[in-house]
Amino acid sequence: MKTVCRTMGLARSHVRDLLGREEDWNDGRRHRTPTGDAGLLAELRQEIAQLPSYGYRRACALVNRQRAAQGAPKVNAKRVYRVMAAADLLLPKAPRRRQSARTHEGRVAVSRSDLRWCSDGLEIKCDSGQTVTATFMKDCCDREVMAWRAWEGKGLPGEPVREMLIEAVERRFGSVEAVPADQELEFLSDNGGAYIAADTRALARALGLKPINTPVCSPQSNGMAESFVNTFKRDYLAAQEWPGNVRQLRQRIEEALVFCDTVELRVSDFDRYRHAEPPPTPAPAAIAPAGASLKDVERELIHRTIAELGGNKKRAAERLGISRSHLYKVLARED
């Protein structure tokens, strides 16, 4: 039996059913009287009249919902597809997108820390109508959020992202010069303007990172960062009451990321009020030599402040009231 079925290309179970049928067996699927499609077509047109962007599956679900309320039998989705195709009611097929040639095994997570970092941004709507925008840097192995930025307003500029890059490198390696030269550290992000900007990519390479921007429909996606954003909004922010104080919301986000002692955020992490910012330090006065340009004065002031603080560029940027990315840009002009 096995050899015969393999030669004929049939399943043994199907052959057994054929041999077990009686002589007067009749296929019940034949000689059926088809039901008219005019009534079903009228129901479909009524459901999609106001929403022509509905496909056949959603239209079928709406028709079956009405039929269930009336006690009528449900209709099959294949029949709905056939009726809508005959009446030219199907949606046009989406154009085939160009697939990325980049090969990947389908995993964003890595087996060791400091092999791949990911980043993304999110917007949080307050009850007053104001919006808080935040961005973060996360390790794809231990899930630690190493650096973040949050501010009032919409849009993700490149300056907070570059500041976050410097802070993340300093937190993991002690200083921006401590990244091992033989280590390849990937910086995974989407195609947002803040991430694909020339200044951001140049700073990332200068810090020893390898920028990777995920193309559309690529298997190497930014799914870990996007999953963190969705979980953060759904499980934590949605359960909090924000009366419209944007500063309070920003402070709560920073507190939760600072004092979280596990790889996952908890609701209790939003109830701490231990975050205190240091008082701003006034910028030192500088005397410009006669005939010096503004760029020379700026460069001299930065060098003098770094020397006074023992080479600490982070504290120098804070004292001068400038961003660290701008400080590194000024220093890079001399090279």
Q: Low-confidence spans: pLDDT under 50, at least 5 residues?
A: 273-277
The rounded Rg comes to 31 Å
Overall CATH class of the largest domain: Alpha Beta
Give the helix level as a range of percent.
40-55%
Shape: elongated
Number of helical segments with 4 or more residues: 13
Which structural class best describes the helix and strand composition? Answer: alpha/beta
Average pLDDT level: 80
Task: Give the tags.
Arc Repressor Mutant, subunit A, 13 helices, 3 domains, 335 residues, five-stranded mixed sheet, alpha/beta, Nucleotidyltransferase, domain 5
Would you write up a description of this structure?
The chain has about 325 residues and is α/β, with parallel strands linked by helices. The protein folds into three domains: about 60 residues; about 160 residues, Nucleotidyltransferase, domain 5, CATH 3.30.420.10; about 60 residues, Arc Repressor Mutant, subunit A (Orthogonal Bundle), CATH 1.10.10. Strands 3-2-1-4-5 form a five-stranded mixed β-sheet, sandwiched between helices. About 0% of the residues have low confidence.
SSE map:
Blueprint (H helix, E strand, L loop, with lengths): L1 H7 L3 H9 L17 H10 L8 H15 L6 H10 L29 E10 L5 E9 L5 E8 L5 H16 L11 E5 L3 H4 L1 H9 L2 E5 L9 H14 L9 H14 L34 H15 L4 H8 L3 H9 L3
Parallel strand pairs: 1-4, 4-5
Antiparallel strand pairs: 1-2, 2-3
Helix pairs in contact: 4-5, 6-8
Please provide a brief summary of the model.
The chain is 42% helix and 11% strand. By secondary structure, the chain is of the alpha/beta class.
